[in-house]
Amino acid sequence: MLVATTENVPGYKRVETLGQCFGVVVRSRGLGGNILASLRTIFGGEIHEYSQLLEEARRQAVDRMVKNASAMGADAVVMMRFDSSDIGGIMSEIVAYGTAVKLEEEK
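Structure (tokenized):
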């Protein structure tokens, strides 16, 4: 499935707009990861444990969004965006969302 952050996809025309689609993930680091990340804050720099957590959560959110769009009969998602928030200071919510569409190659 084609996923684009733009409204239009060069070489394709939109033949049907199916509506919004999304994928949601809520993740938390385990106790060991939190301890290691806390120790890293003492010295500064990137906290790899959290970077990896958020990267995996974004991929999973996109996968879920694509599954949602496929269930709607879409062959593409346009205007894809991410949103994130913190839940209680211990969890992160990642949402991938966009518009599910059917595209056709321009001739």
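The chain has two helices and four strands. The mean pLDDT is 88.
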